[in-house]
Amino acid sequence: MLSSLPILDASQPGHTSRSRRSFLADMGMGFTGLALGAMLADERRVAAAEAAPHTPGTLHYAPKTKSIIWVFLSGGYSHLETFDPKPALNQYAGMTFDKTPFENPVNSPLHKKRFRSVAAEEINVRDVYPTIYPMQVGWQKYGQSGIEVTDWWPHLAKQVDELCIVRNMWTTDNDHAAENQIHTGRHRLDEPQPSLGAWAHYGLGTLNENLPKFAVLGGPTRSDTRLSLDSLYLGPQHAGVPLALDPKNPLPFGQRKAGQSVDEQRMEYALINRLNALSAVEYPEDQELLARIRAYELAFRMQAAVPEAIDFAQETAATRTLYGIDNDVTKTAGERMLAARRLVERGVRFVQVYPSAYGTWDSHQKLKDNHTRLCATVDQPIAGLIQDLKQRGLMDEVTVVFCTEFGRTPGLELRGGGKDGRDHHPNGFTIWMAGAGIKKGYVHGATDELGYNALGDGHYVTDLHATVLRLLGLDNRRLEFPGRKRLDIDHGKVMEDVLA
Questions:
Q1: Residue 307 confidence (pLDDT)
Q2: Which is nearest to 470 in space by CA: 457, 479, 460, 481?
Q3: How far is residue 441 from each of residues 144, 186, 444, measured CA to CA in Å?
Q4: pLDDT along the chain (500 residues), means of 10
Q5: What pLDDT is stored for residue 249 in this prediction?
């Protein structure tokens, strides 16, 4: 039979050289092909393991946390009206920077060092508005730590002694591609890199075979923010798995067909995996195929585990109230925070939570109205998460990160006749962390008197990545991937001062 088949001349246009092994595998080869495939697959796995510099589950340090809950507020909340209040903005409101007793922050070498505009510098003035805009909310010192928090966070302010507030973050993109940047570490003009969640997935072993290691709630917020949870060259099996908070359909396209039994689906998946395995032998570099095999295996197991994990019927009325689920204003964020807690309880390593939609916090105008409303949607749910983790003894096992892509300008935005808003501000902004491995009731770093520049070296976003990975027991500099060389800035430096 084989001798009757035409021989393809690899030298002819349109033909490529094919090995006999590839040819036989593509022909099927029945059970013989399956046996051969199994042996060759084992050989490939052994060779790959020997070549790889990191084996998932191999820790570089004693871990200080088991799981990360990464809460991201899209659009850029104002650090000045949240966790880094600046009295000087009120004292010198209406003046230009050069009329204050402080150094003009635009003239600081830090400004040029940390600013990378996509548009030509001479026409881009988005972060240098010179007229100081006063704070739009009051603030107080809270807790034994006496940390300043604005009045828009009354619930979270009661948990301030659990927080470690980092006030000297900076990034380089002054547009919303910074949403991807805070997750990947790369400016949009550069080659993209895997997201932080993907690196955590790549580096860690699983704590629960029936749930994804990297789960996403409420995102990606748009198709162009997919990079924020993508795994790129690490392989698609390490990308975030979006989950819907519907116990009846939490996995779109992952449910059994109507009338199909569990055994029938199990046999269907087994057949698909056997067929995929044949192709995987001959195309071991096909990451999409390898990920598909793992996806079928995980999807089958998740069908029972995920609905249970996000079923709030098991929660008490008091818990639902704690998260604000019984209030329309806080319901969406509350459900996502509660789901995050339930997922880490069940061993999910990295949960990326989007409490609100894309760009929601982008207050170019009517900042006071927008932030008053938006803080109210998140304040009780995030405070409820902290309190719930404490009362369940999970603050020693889980670390919460609360962040956004950049801050807002100290100066009044003037574009479009602006009169009551702030523009994007990558030069200095605030995030906070809480939980396992993190100092409590502590402030790290600062911006200048006007909240413009992060002082000192500050922390580029990959410093946050390095810190999170260290908490998980991973050295960001040793998480290399065969054939890929990352830049020094991609690795970042651990924020040693924030570690407990």
A1: 86
A2: 479
A3: 8, 31, 10
A4: 36 42 40 40 41 70 97 98 98 96 92 72 68 98 98 98 98 93 95 96 92 94 94 92 83 60 66 64 63 63 83 95 98 98 97 97 97 98 98 98 98 90 96 98 98 96 98 94 89 97
A5: 75
- Cis upstream peptide for 220 (omega within 30°): yes
- Read off the DSSP letter of residue 49: H
371, HSE (Cβ side, Cα atoms, 13 Å):
29
How is 195-214 classified by DSSP, letter by letter?
-HHHHHHHH---S-TTS-SE
Chain-centroid distance of CA 475 in Å reads 18
Neighbours of 127 (CB within 10 A): 26
Q: Locate tokens 């295996």: which residue?
A: 297
- Give the CA count within 13 Å in the CB-facing half-sphere of 335: 18
Class for domain 67-245+310-498, per CATH?
alpha beta
CA distance 96 to 227: 38
Amino acid residing at 38: A
- From start to end of 276-420, where are the E strands? 350-353, 398-403, 407-408
Token pair 């039994």 in the structure block, residue? 261
Torsion of CA 286, 287, 290, 296, to 10 degrees: -130
100, 103, 124, 302 from 450: Cα distances, Å? 10, 10, 21, 50
What one-character DSSP code corresponds to residue 158?
A: T
The residue among 298, 398, 381, 399 whose CA lies nearest residue 346 is 398
CA distance 390 to 341: 11
Write down the pLDDT at residue 113: 79
Nearest to 161 by CA among 177, 142, 175, 148: 142
**296, 275 Cβ separation under 8 angstroms:** no
Which amino acid, one-letter code, is at 113? K
pLDDT computed for residue 123 by the predictor:
54
Per the DSSP assignment, residues forming a β-bridge with 415 are none
